[in-house]
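Follow-up to my earlier ticket, as requested here are the two runs.
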Amino acid sequence: MVAYNLQVLILAGGSGTRLWPLSREEMPKQFLTLFSNRSLLQDTISRMLRVAPAEALTVVTGEEWKALVAHQGRDVCSLAPEQVVVEPISRNTCPAIALGAVSLLETKRASEEDLLFVAPSDHIVVDGAAFSAAVELAASAAMRGDLVLFGVPPLYGETGYGYVEATECAGTFPGGALPVRRFVEKPSREKAEEYVASGNFYWNSGMFCFRIGEFLHALEEYIPEIGLPARKGVAALLEAFPRLPSLSVDYAVMEKARNVAMVPLRAGWSDVGSWDAVYDVLPKDDSGNVVLGDCVLDDASGNLVFAADHLVALQGVRDSIVVSTSDAVAVLPRGASQGIRNIVAALRGKGRKEVSQTPNSVRPWGSYHILDESERYKIKRIVIAPGKRLSLQYHLHRSEHWIVVRGTAWVRIGDTDRFVHEGESIFVPKGSIHRLGNQGKIPLELIEVQCGEYVGEDDIVRVADDFRRRPEQE
């Protein structure tokens, strides 16, 4: 066994549109609990703990998700502040990895000789033991100086994935890693089926392993507009970030480098990049249906039905995807779910809030669900976890009325503190500095009624906040 020090970089950005209407821009899929009682991010962190200790994990994310990453990560392992790296603007995977790598060096948590394993936060890997074995193999290749990617033997001709051609006929690297012959972007259906039949093509999993120094040298050689500021340190890279090209690490480095190897990953991988992928990985009933939530099916087969908030009934429906949330319903044929991007693009063009906002939001202090809203009011069900509190804040355009339905609320309005018990209510006038918290041992549940000329989520002026968020992140 080759001795090495392994750092793990988890990429937790993303626009959250491919699983619309469940995922939204403010709640990408890595934070959703689709397949277990944990989110995809939490499952990823747990999986990474199989190959590295908790202190070797780093998550790169956007400012808007920093608090949520820390909150969800806490349920698996505590992440120190330096283990959550914030990119100022999304610039695809190459700048994100560069920022994570440079941050590790600058905080002296790693050296250029150490290995960096890069993984998206929103994928599924079923076989943990096979995954760990593949990482071990990749680490051996990376210690020799190779830039290693993980390829998944394709199960079918998927057009939504990139492909990697790597064949043993060209010679096998020591230890079982394969030399990469070429990369192919998302192919046509006909080409994808040809690739599967050939036996030499693999799905590009988006996971990588390499020496930190080797990666930074490759950046300087192949994409100096990222590599040069990265060599100057975190401050220089952050200052240049808005001007950096938005490039995937595949295109920027892996497709150009000469020392690229591939490790086959046979571990039940899926990027869960579409509703079709969700259907593929979940268990089916005797009629081939995947049913999530409150659903009734009659004479229906081959369907994926997701009911987030309401009863959904299907009769005589075949091979369809039906996803229902409290504010949107999507229906599309199974096998064509990549087309949801066209729907999202059309909605964005119309300025529809359903693209970005979600009625069910998880926050560092708990969660809320929007029950009803109009131009001048909004009604929420709010749940605050024990020991948590919202920011000290005030609103310029709305008043709030809180009705406690479970637990006891600690409330500060101005300079006055009080407890509001189950069945009681309290009014917060417009412009009043206030705070709401839960000092009890059970979740606090309340109904909030907002009234005013503007009830947007960004009407928050913070005076103090436990989670250091911007106004629109309440």
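Run two:
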Amino acid sequence: MKRADVAPIESCSTRVVDAERVAAVSTRMPAETDLADTADVFGLLADPGRLRLLLALLEGELCVCDLAVVSGLSESATSHALRLLRAHRVVSVRRAGRMAYYRLDDAHVRMLLDLAVAHTEHTQAIHPERQE
């Protein structure tokens, strides 16, 4: 239902309200390529299967077989996800014979995961309908 007394956002009468703040924010805005790379990282974290793999790796190095069990993915899907994460330098691999052991390779991703988990544990705002 549309209210007549609420102006749509595209009808701002003033182009810039706080020019000083807009200028300050604009100078701190990352380059387009950096924004795209950052969006890629969040895209990697947006898949529940990959997220389960990464969360499992917070505890340390695990082989593909164990990661498949922990994540609930098939070994094939696990390997595919790990290849993608490795291509983006989020995880690294150590080979021991025929076994491949993965670990988180980026402290920044570890911090993102820790913060995301803490955020979901401390807020009901994301999905209040899921209250227990």
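The only thing I checked on run two: The chain has one domain: 31-130. Let me know what else you need.
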